[in-house]
Amino acid sequence: MRLSLLGLALLAGLADLVAAPSPAVPEARREQRLHFTAQDREVGRYQYVPVTVPAGTTRLTIAYAYDKAGGANVVDLGLFEPGPLDLGTPAQRGWSGGAAAEIFVGTSAASPGYWPGPLPEGEWHVLLGLYKVGPAGVDVTLTAETSAVADPAPVPTLAPRPTGPLRPGPAWFSGGVHLHTRHSDGEFSTEEVCRRAREAGHDFVVITDHNNTTHQLDPVDVPGLLRLVGEEVTTPGGHASVLGIGGWRDQVDFRLIAGDERIRDLVRAANERGALFAINHPRARGRDGAVGLAAPAPKAHRGHRVLRLASARPPHRRGQRARVGGRALGEGDPRRDPRRARRGDGRRGDASTGAPRPLRERRGAHR
């Protein structure tokens, strides 16, 4: 009789277990349809779409699609993990701009422009940058997919940074200070960019991908070449390069618009890192009508230490002298590179100083 009662009790308990609802399983894939107007762009250039990532997630995939309307619409892509969204937040996980329609972040690997590593549970945010929105607005389809498949691979680490000089004693060093890789809109891998730079006679390069520094994850074996870390801070009001940063997820925030007073904070953040802040394209007029990395007044740039005077000038501007603060730089100005001064025989530089070859002879190192 006891066995019968025990058996009935076990059967009843089993029935209760079968009848009880199973724990909710987090949704693995979610699609959102969003609409933005030109007014949305004026009010909030950067839009943040929340995405829930459950505990135990090892991979997050984000895909988006929209009608470009013949170039009238341009929407960029970025990602933030749980944390504050204030300027300078460490929660930024990556940025690809308009270079990729689908990206992923995993514990041991990630798409170019994004950092791998553990995926904390909570509310993430997909960043949609409304660079251009046409009169009819833009519809964006956003898909987020999470996975909890075990990943035995370790989190990657950065290669040790060199500490010794390239060569002893005083010398001229030639380098490329504005280079892009596949981690933003570049055509070549980090290794290929470095190889081409060395073949062109450069001693160093500064990789300045747009709004990220994830090229540091790429191993590079190019003897005789020093690779430095930079970032091209790409804003709607202009571009600037931060030269000499580096480290795990080290970057300078870019979420500014023309006239934003916080440009001073951006410059200060670069200087506190011991980096150089260089204003790029100082005379180029941007989408918002700003010239260079514009701020309310020229003194807003106080703290920048480098001004990019010129690169490859169009034919109608060749022969013009570079100008700083409305004044042309004369031949005797100490800010002019002595290697660029013409000799009496018409050649550039002096072979005895180790000066590099003219820029027109260096092919393949610049995009």
Describe the structure.
This protein has 367 residues and is α+β, with helices and mostly antiparallel strands. It has 2 domains: 29-147, Jelly Rolls, CATH 2.60.120.380; 175-311 and 342-361, no CATH class. The chain contains 4 helices and 16 strands. The strands form 4 sheets. Strands 9-10-11-12-13-14 form a 6-stranded mixed sheet. A 4-stranded antiparallel sheet has the order 1-8-3-6. The longest helix is centred in the first third of the chain and has 18 residues, at 2-19. Residues 5-25, 294-301 and 312-367 have low confidence and may be disordered.
Summary of the model, kept short:
12% of the residues lie in helices and 27% in strands. It is α+β, with helices and mostly antiparallel strands.
What is the CA-atom radius of gyration, in angstroms? 26 Å
Order of helices and strands: HEHEEEEEEEEHEEEHEEEE
How many alpha or pi helices? 4
Oligomeric nature of the chains: single chain
Mean of pLDDT: 78
Low-confidence stretches: 5-25, 294-301, 312-367
Please provide the count of β strands.
16
- Overall tally of domains: 2
